Amino acid sequence: MSCLPDPRLPTGPLATAWRRTRDGLPLISPLRKRQLRIVVVGSGLAGSAAAASLAEQGYQVQLVTFHDSPRRAHSVAAQGGINAAKNYANDGDSVERLFADTLKGGDFRAREAGCYRLAEISGAIIDQCVAQGVPFAREYGGTLANRNFGGSQVSRTFYARGQTGQQLLYGAYQALMRQVAAGRVELLTRREMLELVTLDGVARGVVCRNLLSGELETYTANAVVLASGGYTNVYYLSTNALKSNASAIWRAHLEGALFANPCFTQIHPTCIPSGDAYQSKLTLMSESLRNDGRVWLPLKAGDRRPPDQIPEAERDYFLERQYPSYGNMVPRDVASRRARELCDGGHGVGQGGRSVYLDFHDAIASQGSEIIETRYGNLFEMYQRITGVDPMAAPMRIYPAPHYTMGGLWVDYHLMSSIPGLFVLGEANFSEHGANRLGASALMQGLADGYFIAPATVTAWLAEQGATAIGPDDPAVREACLEAGQRAQGRIEALLAVAGTRPVDSFHRALGQLMLEHCGIIRSAAGLQAGLAAVAELEAQFQRDLRVPGGAHEPNGELEKALRLSDFFGLAQLMLRDALAREESCGAHFREEHQSSGGEAVRDDQHFAHIAAWEHRPGAAPIRHQEPLSFSLLQPSTRNYQ
Amino acid sequence: MSGLISLTLRIWRQRSPESPGAYASYRLERVSADLSLLEALDLLNEQLISAGERPVGFEHDCREGICGSCGFLVNGQAHGPQAATTVCQLYLRRFNDGDTLVLAPWQAKAFPPIQDLVVDRSALDRLIEAGGFCSVNTGNAPDANAILVGRDQAASAFETATCIGCGACVASCRNASASLFVAAKLAHLAQLPQGQPERAARAEAMQQQMGREGFGSCSSQLECEAVCPKQISADWISWMHGERRRAAGSGG
Q1: CB–CB contact A501 B50 (8 Å)
Q2: What is each CA distance from B137 to A49, A53, A83, A332, B185, in whole angstroms?
Q3: I want to staple A107 with a disulfide (CB 3.0 to 4.6 A). Which of A76, A435, A618, B20 is the partner?
Q4: Measuring CA to CA, which residue among A225, A627, A260 is closest to residue A416?
Q5: Phi-psi bin for B176: left (phi > 0), alpha (psi -120 to 50), beta?
Q6: Nearest-CA distance from B159 to chain A in Å?
């Protein structure tokens, strides 16, 4: 690998680009499909949807998940909703508007063709999910209900209370289990992918650790699909499930897959703030709460009075003040930054002054407590359980937290990585969100990739290989598997051999602190340089002083965590490098050297209207490739939410 | 802030399915009452690792009450003493300073032990595999609004669809029955137009699978409802029995 592969972007009008592409893709006869094997890694929305859809087509599919059941994948935790350009609300929505909001929301750092396709497919996703029995919220007349989400001026978000991700995942999971019952999907639970198997630069399978026996197992295939989610747990405290990790994509990166835009990490503005040092989690409070909740802080810095003793005139509803058009519904990066600035200025409330109020008092007064409770009941309960405070009686306290990674493995328009035969879906790829993901668009992308795009493009790639291509059972493939297995074995033995004094979590907490400090809501050249040195030093300590109890051939949660953390160290350094190289502010990536006098992000379209795709080089600094971005339907403009 | 708390944890330790298990006692001294119980176990595990001992195995992931990974008995109660709460959302402030908590794994024939507090719940997946789905292939579904579903009907379907498959209902039933889990899935799909074509066959197949997996019959004790973190009503179990009669009547 020495250059960027062709992104295979469609030419001609965007409105028909995906249809033209899809119609031009080669097909495979049902009889031949039965002889082809596909391994899917990950059982979230993208992985389960892809595995189910590919199996429906007739392929032999093996699904690898580290969970005990596919139903536990982190997609289950998505609360707010899923966008679709159905215009059921008759408020002027259209595919073009959803496309525009997606591209603009991502601060023009995503591909136009991908964003258009996502908007175009969105309607079919809702149809598919409803047909599966996903119980979306309904109006009294029986039609689907919609609500508004951050960064949008129309109501296009479909939802199932605050558990939309759960219901969509169960729909995909059930479709998957139907295929398991039909014998077309082999479910491989409690396995974690440790290595990608390649032969002559083509993906041929994966090496997994069986988390119960500790045995290393290889699964060979005609194509490999990675749908292993995002990597926000590099920050330790995040909204992600604790086991979410970067190992699958990082191992693929080390095998030659380019890693795109690693520094684009969304910091979600509405999370329950951190408290105790042993807190393991920052729980997300759905963005939908900002439909009715008003965000404020005391006008006077250092004001320690309880919220009910601070009169209206002494409150600063800062988002409404700074962004009169969008108010509390400004996009996530903007809301997060403004909260952080005021907290840095001493206006913050709660422990260490690291939170802001999200107040439902006015909504309760105007709409009644019953309506607000019906709308947000389960979120309020969750907040109360965690904090011990009832948000119906006192304002919630919220603070930004690492939430979603827009970066990931580079893929072309067919969702194929720079390793032929390796497809990457959902949050694991860098895809359509640009520098900042709009609310309610992650679920949309996962399902678009899994249900509709990968089944067409994986088939096309397999068709192009022809019947004479090297198959998964070829002796050369077996040899490659052996080598990959030895790599995994070597890593496990090395970690167990350290025999130091510090548990893996203590290193992970330290890494998270460094990343939050140096590569969080606000970044600077000096901070990023310092971060690079500090992470390298911490990694060296990890290699010297880690203690992993137990052995390799038994359930060993500490070994699992150590393997994941060893990969996070490499990724963290790439994130810092990427943030350092991107000398502009865009979306979630805010470099303090690049801001307007009013503190808004200043993008540099002349030099940075591109995707940064990093190439790994063993023992040397990675190479940064650039894929230029061009726009035809919508020209880059400065984001303005005022 | 709720202050500091000291606890004794008596935890079931079992290295492997074949090895014998026994309770072991541990002390947590003056830890924050704002920690969740799983965070307290994290802390305990760090202490054990530092002391050269094997950490306690327990399932967890999202730690916000939705993935269904976590779950064990706390003083004999599935997910502990707080209603409508998974064990990951059980905070130490719920307990008193000096309390002893006994932590034990789910105990059911259909849930074989793995290690410490971890058991194998894959039987629940096989129940879904038996028919807990709508048979619809990807693509070409009709427009979503072509299928009208009344608001209350959709809300009721949602209430049953919200089951997280944690297994607390099984663990708390004296017969280790999965009736609430199965009833919830049957009710979710049968309350929607999309679920009608396979309604009878689904009811039959899922209930038969329960027996094959080694789950017992409903004990009618309603413990399942009491411990369900998603508050799914045991009334759906009665409804499920009616579904089976209905299926038998329809020949399905």
Answers
A1: yes
A2: 11, 7, 22, 35, 20
A3: A435
A4: A225
A5: left
A6: 9
Mean pLDDT value of segment A387-406: 94
Q: How many CB pairs under 8 A join A and B?
A: 232
Distances (CA, A) of A131 to A535, B132, B140: 48, 14, 10
Q: Which residue has the higher pLDDT, A376 or B173?
A: B173
What is each CA distance from B22 to A40, B87, B121, in whole angstroms? Answer: 39, 21, 22
Q: What whole-number distance in Å separates Cα of residue B223 and Cα of residue B237?
A: 12
Query: Of all helices (H) and strands (E), which one includes residue A38?
Result: strand A37-41
Interface predicted TM-score of the whole assembly (ipTM), two decimals:
0.98
The closest of B108, B42, B47, B98 to B73, measured between CA atoms, is B108
pLDDT in tens, B134-157: 999 999 899 999 999 999 999 999
- In B, which residues are within 8 Å of A138 by CB distance? 149-151, 153-155
Residue A140: other Cβ atoms inside 10 A: 9
Residue A322, chain B, CB below 8 Å: the answer is no
**In the numeric block, which tokens belong to residue A98?**
């959803």
Q: Which long-range contacts (CB under 8 A, 24 or more apart) does B104-107 make?
A: B104/B12, B104/B72, B104/B73, B104/B76, B105/B12, B105/B14, B105/B72, B105/B73, B106/B71, B106/B72, B106/B73, B106/B78, B106/B167, B106/B168, B106/B170, B106/B171, B107/B73, B107/B171, B107/B176
Q: What is the DSSP string of A58-71?
A: T-EEEEE-SSSSGG
Tokens matching residue A433: 């969100």
Element (DSSP H or E) covering residue B205: helix B199-213
DSSP string, A80-128: S-EE----TT-SS--HHHHHHHHHHHTTT-S-HHHHHHHHHHHHHHHHH
Farthest-apart Cα atoms in chain A, separation: 77
Q: At what angle do helices A17-24 and A112-132 cross, to 10 degrees?
A: 80
Interface of A with B in 433-472 (CB under 8 A): 451-452, 455
Closest Cβ–Cβ partner in A141, A161, A385 for B158? A161
pTM above 0.90, yes or no: yes
The residue with tokens 């993008």 is A603
Q: Which two tokens stand for residue A172?
A: 């995909």
CA angle in degrees (0–180, nearest 5) for A298-A105-A100? 140
Residue to mutate among B29, B49, B119, with most A CBs inside 10 A, is B49
- The end-to-end CA distance of chain B, in Å, is 57
Q: How far apart are the first and last CA of chain A?
A: 45
Per-residue pLDDT tens digits for A523-532: 999 999 999 9
**3-state class (DSSP) for residue B217:** coil
Distance of CA A467 to the CA centre of its chain: 36
At residue A330, the pLDDT reads: 86
Q: How far apart are CA A229 and CA A129, in angstroms?
A: 21
By CB atoms closer than 10 A (0-12, 13-18, 19+), residue B75 is: middle
Cα–Cα dist B38/B15, whole Å: 19
**Strand, helix or coil for residue B94:** helix
Q: What is the mean pLDDT of residues A279-283?
A: 91
What phi and psi, each to the nearest 5 degrees, are found at residue A315?
A: -110, 145
pLDDT digits (tens, 9 = 90+) for B82-107: 999 999 999 999 999 999 999 999 99
